Records
---
Amino acid sequence: MNVPAEPAVVPNGQAPTLAFAGVGKTFADGTVALSDVDLTVAPGEFVTIVGPSGCGKSTLLRIASGLTRLSGGSMRVNSGKVGYVFQDATLLPWRTVQGNVELLSELHKLPRADRRRRADEAIKLVGLSEFAGHRPRALSGGMRMRVSLARSLTLDPELFLFDEPFGALDELSRERLNDELQQLFVSQRFAALFVTHSVTEAVYLSTRVVVMSGRPGRIRADFEVPFDYPRLPQLRFEDRFSQIAGRVSRCLRGTDV
Amino acid sequence: MSVEVQPASPDQQLPAAPPSQLSRRRGRSNWLGFVVPPFLVFLAFLGLWYFVSYGLLTADRRFLVPPPHAVVQVAFLDTVNLAELLDALWLSTKVAMVGLGIAIVLGTALAILMSQARWIERSIWPYAVVLQCVPILAIVPVIGFWFEFGFRSRVIVCVIIALFPMIANTLFGLQSVDAGHHDLFTLHGASRLTRLRKLQFPAALPAVFVGLRTSAGLAVIGAIVGDFFFKQGEPGVGILIDLYRARLQTEQMFGALILASLLGVVAFWIFGYLSRLVVGGWHESAGGAASG
């Protein structure tokens, strides 16, 4: 069953899950991280931001999550729970995989049976059921990232924020996790805002790729990625993929000013 | 010689054997290698002792370093002497335990308080440092003056000596949580108490145990030193040491020294063991490293 990629503008006028309007951010030391950013993520859209280092991509995510406050403009979030996946898996080393995955439900004070059930389901979804009793130190980087993903899934978020989650992993693990994330996206159909340096990863995962300029960050371009889901690994080597990836790359290089 | 290695399935990581198991396995198979070297060193140490006693000292000055068998005979095999030593040891142990207990509770409470705000930390810190630096000899007369010379005063001296590492190490542990983990808790609306209970305190445990080990050792020293300086009240090990010194009963003095050292070693060992038990499963510091 092929799931079509969602268009950028949802015809039935559903409210966007996440909307930035003229968002700016200036830090206390005077650095202007973001300037006049307009960006919308509709329900079920997977939007990736690529941009040079220091262009404010992470800042935008932090603003979306509430960790950082914006200095100007406005932001709207229409989502029950928001999932946030950091570049570091940020697992608690003294807890087992099970304990780590249950953490967020604990913080949200859900009853024990409920926590258990959600955690078990999430761990199964990321394929780590055999390792539920292990501590993080016994896991590889890729496995830890899957635990982090499972943890976020326990809250059934409608919006997912990803801050270069696979950046610290090797090529193979990265590609494998891309596929797993894609499967999760297809089955859970959350809205996602994903930040990465990798153009290939961006085009492979997303329904839209947004290019951000260097500091102060603003949106340079917005590319549709019209491929159906689920996308196969071979897609990366097809012409239609390279065309879009090429355009994104060129736009990205052009912003290195 | 060629070796064939079967690759593990790329995604599967063989779960690491808990390092304590590794060292246990190693220990069982080279039990001899484990026990013999320290034993040989011990024999060498005894040999050195005998040498100093008989080789370096003339008979009339041998009392300065009584030979090991004399120490054992007079201090440990004589029931009256042994009873005196053990009573004093028990008293000093009680002082050290109570002193350590108070130091743990007080030190942890202060550290938690100081971790809540920089201004609190800055306000209390100077007093903690003073605690660390003040010479005990100077405090003891004052404490004796205020609290007399019984059990209570000894415990107070003990607490003063053992408190600082508990404060410093616990505070350090509480503050070393990285920003990413704090962000995670902030994102999900954790209260201050929740953050302390579920994040900061567990994260601080390795540092807390380092502090515990240090404070335990200091508590033993504090119990004996306090005793020594007070010179009055029921005799703990400190008073006995001084008494034997004054009477030139050096065999018993050495006996007291040995027992006092053993007390320190036991304290050190207990907290090392507790540390491995609590933190060993997830932190490298507490003997979690498979370095045998």
---
Amino acid sequence: MNVQEMEAVIGLEIHVEMNTETKIFCGCRTAFGAETNTQVCPICLGLPGHKPVLNQKAVEWHAKAALALNCEIAPYVQFDRKNYFYADLPKGYQISQFFYPMGINGHVDIEVNGETRRIRIRQIHLEEDTGKLLHMGNITASPSSLVDFNRAGVPLLEIVTQPDVRNAEEARLFLQKLRTIIQYTGVSDCKMEEGSMRCDANVSVRPKGSDILGQKTELKNMNSFRAVTRGIDYEIPRQIDLVLDGEEVIPQTRHWDEAKGVTRAMRTKYLATDYRCFPDPNVPPFKNDPAWVEEIRQSLPELPDARYARLVKEDGLPPYDAEVITASKAMADFYDQTVALVKEPKTVSNWLMGEVGRCLNTAGKEIQETALTPKHLAELLGLVKKGVITGKIAKDVMDEMFRSGQDPETIVKEKGLVQIADQSELDPVIDRVIQANPKVVEDFHAGKDRALGFLVGQVMKETRGKANPQMLNELLRRKLQG
Amino acid sequence: MLNDARIGRLHELLESRQISAEELITAVLERISTLETTLNAFITITPEQALADAQTVDASIARGEAIGPLAGIPVALKDNICTEGVRTTCGSRMLEHYVPPFSAVAYERLRQAGAVLVGKSNMDEFATGTTNKNSFFGATANPWSPDHIPGGSSGASAASVAARQVCLSIGSDAGGSVRVPAAHCGVVGLKPTYGLIPTDGLAECAPSLEHLGPLTLDVTGCALALQVLTAGEDYTAYLGRDIRGLRIGIPQEYLEQADPQVRSLFDSAVQMLTGLGAEVEETSLPHTQSAPASYFTISAAEAFSNLSNFDGVRFGHRAEARHLHEMYRKTRTEGFGPDLRRRLIFGTLALSADHYEEYYLNAQKIRTLVCRDFDQAFSKFDLLLTPTVPTPPPAASLGQDELEMRLQGRYAMPANLAGIPALSLPIGFAGELPVGLQLLAPSLGEGTLLSAAYALEQLVGFYRHASKI
Amino acid sequence: MIGVDEMLQAAEAARLEIPNDEAGGFLTEINRMFAFVKESCANLDLGDVPPTAYIQPRMNVFRPDEPQGSLPLEIALANAPDEDERCFKVPRIMEE
């Protein structure tokens, strides 16, 4: 047996924090970044006598996310208690859906090397988040820890895949696709850096072709997409080495150490193996009425795959463009709205991927966080099309639009950027440039192409980029050729 | 003033200004203080707030405003009912100094109705017990005989009413904890339909079994309290109704272990009801004997989970320890008494992977059968009648045979499993010790219970007797 | 029936200690309870009986997604046995 004959089998468990106003069982706010222990109440603190009441929106959004992931919606849903002790768990149990989760048998398709791979989703259930532990120092050295319960009770979606993932790259593609889909539903912003999306991986290895699963380890503490891929890329060979050496893979939880780039066994002594799950007597179960499920389904926006297909088929965009545009719902919506005004899909796509993308990257923002609007972009493209401004000037106008939020017409007027397409204005400038550069003119006549470019550049410089390029080229050639 | 401490009567005296609320509460506080060494019914007494609240009621009366039937009436709350700003201990060392930052909904409703909280009642620790001997704060005595137990876990709640320290107590009942003490102390105790009185703010062990319920000297008082606690209908409308033609069933299984004195009193009560025109017939609830097994298992399993928040992190007792899990162990071992700990361990085992099906799941199945028994019975009967407890109040000196003691609630437990309303009415004495009769009705059948209980009460009039203390 | 080890494991799962002198008594009482429960089920055919987890017919109980009820910081921490920097303070998580 050698490495080539082994394959990895990976299942992912992803937790996604919902963007509801309030927590799942109480009316405390869920906003990120609040002062410690200011978004707490007797219910989420687990004080004696607390009684949970389920947030309706959390249930609706759960269904929304489940449908977006192609799940079936279970007709009967029950909340159960998962019992264990830890400092960030106020009640000594977590309310989750163990026996009857709401979403089951879903899938997400990813493109791997030109092929479509289906990653099946076993279930998506709703549960509550824990509080946060703040260690003075690190967890092994601290004499004490501090606990902030602001996060305790935030509604959490847990998505569990079947062990269909085979390597780190697939995991990454899956996570990206999952994130995009969830973002489209509006249920969560899925920001790993803020903790609103977390991923654990169950990894095992086996000989290719076998259908028996090997012993698995659970990888935790991977706090970014990069950490997930690095963690998996470390763990797979580690396990393969063990197996090829004739050793056993010990089923255990392993902690990803970002600094050292390794996974490390966690002491399992206090990680309960028997959660003693039973139905939570305080939270009544609920039945899902098919009409309600249908309503939720209707409320879903056009999802990434469908959007991508439409942009390619109907708008004729190249696959690459369609992928970039549909990577975020805000971008895809912006695109649609601009195209509705301008009716030139490729042009719009070019601008969004090009200039707009550049501005967004520099500013570190998402398109919905800027002052840019589809209407203004459409106007800008119109100005270029009508020849009011050159393409190059348009880029400067874009920068200004981005910065100030002003509409392009106003910017062009105020800055006097209107294109010079009037021959009587260009002629004197061209003449001046020709006169000032006799050597270059000679080069042109000698057949050196770059000479023309240089002269064009000089005219552009004098006109501060406003000369109409086609006219300029034509006039310049005519004058040079005599 | 307190010889007849029925709510209705005291309300009349207050309304007609024959007494003031302040006088009433002052008398009550004196009585409490006099009896405390013998009775030990209170863990916390709130004299300043009580007098202030009484004065508020008096001011209202002085302004000529109409007052509700509970205004100015002295009330005790079992100490597992949260009262904002007032210590709430659940009878346990774990919460010896705990002061809740919020009040139970039931308490808020009482306050709005002008009722005056005079103190928090002693109880078996976290409501685990049928004797009220299981409290960190010492045992409570039965006012009819200090050598006998008042029942539990709301023993002190019942004792206070019987001893005329208060007119109304609110207790909690997961397996008979309101009705058993009501029977042993000779007062009226009601466990309403499940969920009818919201349990927000009740520090409970077993949420699927737990109910809040009033304890009063008479049925009228019970109806008045129920209206306020449910923020609902006027239950006094059911009092005085004719019960001719009422179909009453007597499940034979409930008579099997009954003490002969209890049996004889029960039979007299049945005769009285027949005399009033009710149609009484024997019936069977075949799964009655397995109800305790189901109750013990479900209540312990839920308790294991529901008491996991007592860990020394956010409130309550915390033991010295160098690391977290050691702190958990020491805190919970120091904070919880042995009976409670044993109950929690039993519950932990019942939910374990190895035992889940045989114990917890089976207990839930028995629950189904008990519910079906009642459904079938109520298709033929309006009411079921049983003794509340198989025996008169046991002696306090009896050794704690845990299982036997817990089986005192065996006639009460089925109503918790099914969530149906059940009322205990005192019907007589076994020697000098009170005995109670239990009436059971289908869900939301409180009206039927009150009508029948009231009719019987007119003939028995137990509240006319005064306890020794 | 339950053995001592199993009882101690369950106690640990519930983070409870059983002092040595209580252990015997605990085991006896717990086994009595188990025996009682087992006996009570002995003559019942529970095979096809569905379990009841919820007795109330009440289903689909929700509240709207509107903020309410949070406690001010001082009150949230008022009963804390130990606190620091506006957080609940606990001893070290890991054993030495």
---
Amino acid sequence: MRQCVGMPRREFEWLVVAALLLGLLPYLEVECRQLRRIWRHRVEEYSQPRLPRPVEVIDLDPSFGDEGFDVVTSMKGNDALQFLRTHVKIFVVVMEARVEQMKKQFRERHEINPWSTLVEEDFILLPAVHPEVPPSDLVDIVNTILVTANIHPVTSTNYNLKLPFKKRDCYAHISHAYALQRYIEETFEGKEFLVVLEDDVILHNSFESRLAAIVQLLMQPTTRIHRVPQPQSSETSPLPTTHSIDCVSLGYAFDSKVVNLAREVRYDPKGTGLRLAPQVTPPPQRSPRPGQEHKLRNTENYIFLPWGAMGYLITREWAWKSLKWFGMDIDDCLKGSNVAPSPERRLFYPCQRHLVIPPIVLEDSVRFGSLMGHNVSYLSSSRLFAKDVSERADFYIPIAELKKPTRFFSRCVVPGVLALTFDDGPTEFTSYILQMLKIVQAKATFFTGTRLFINYPMAQMPFFV
Amino acid sequence: MGNYFPEGYQTQNLSRGGLDFYPEVLLEAYNSGHQVAHHTSAHLRLSNTTSEALQKDTAMLKKTFNSLLGTSPTYFRAPYVGHQISQEHASVLAALGIQNIIGWSVSTEDWKEARAQLHV
């Protein structure tokens, strides 16, 4: 061939090498693209500010009633530690006697649980009880809370904060709470920072009131326990103290927010029939007797997700680890068969503090509910691991509702009754309609969309109904 | 290029509706005890809509509802046709948690007036 072209040998060799390189070029390009992607990822990672750690402000479960803390202390061994670990991330230690009690118990349990990091040295007391922290720091902390939560500056008179949050703004304010957490962690660096939210302080299960409760706790160092009177009307406390919960997810504040959301979904305060809460017999109010072994109530109604599974996305490796711990086979879980973990291990999760889980989305086929051995209703795991909280709320459609047959209505069920409906809203006139409805004291149904243009050119939209 | 509006329509006050424009009004309605419900995000004509499109559309609306109210309603009225929707569409909606599909028995037919106003 070389002779045919009449090319010197050296040049022909170069030509062959060049041709080989040309042939390899697509593969090289792919490699380069991957490298570039990784590089870009790194650059973004480092250029962005560090993600603040989420704050976990979870009261002991309200279904336990007033004796939330006692429930913890009456639990034994790993259960108690695990309960504390998973349900309570931060404590506001409000009573010194209880601190001693907790320390004693944890010292005992430290031998039981080798991976426990909650030892005596890890405790730090909040300014409320800690003598070494000067009051100026306390003021700083409170101010940080308030500034990060966009609250007007606090004077000593307005302790009883009513935070001006709307529900739709909550998600934004959670990130402010992250900033708060970061601040607290930087202040108490290297220490386990515990905040106990007593049930007395919790008004109801909204994020705002929890924040307000923290503020109240911090603002009153002299009165250690501030007992907030329970609101009387149903409007101020929309949630009943005892109600069944579909899911309890453990981990971040996001999770608690989502859990609250799920609670609210099941609850229908206005009687509008948006969602009908199923008839559930309420669990007994009182705590178990001292000798009686404590059991979580309505265990079948709970799902326990591993740490961070909901707040952030879970890695395959992490899921595999926890599965291995449960003694379950991942293949079974991928198939979707229900594998229940052993009851002793059901409550335990091998969690590590402040673990940043990289965002890797599990495949849709991973049925997370069966993965944890509980019957959970959900649509798809991509919803479960969605970044947006409101998307994740889709997770909480009970199976019973999914199985309900679709009902079609073309006239009122109750005879002699008129149902007012307003379509294609809300428009600029809807607020007037609302005023008029208020005058006549009638309730209506508004059928709404997101983007509707009324009086749009007639050729495109012939009529609206 | 964009949309072309004839001369008469430019002077016409083109009113807009929906959660993208008036989310506060929806919140106000919801907080004052009224019921809110799905009407598809883009006012789809269901006879021309595939089930995938309906699923996408309603999921979007549901997301909007969730971000606004924290809940999502289970009631639905199909644009133009009310409760007369196919089984396929109904199953799609049921998978999204919408089991109650509402039609009507009396219509004020105010859309006719809107058209009449336009022609004036």
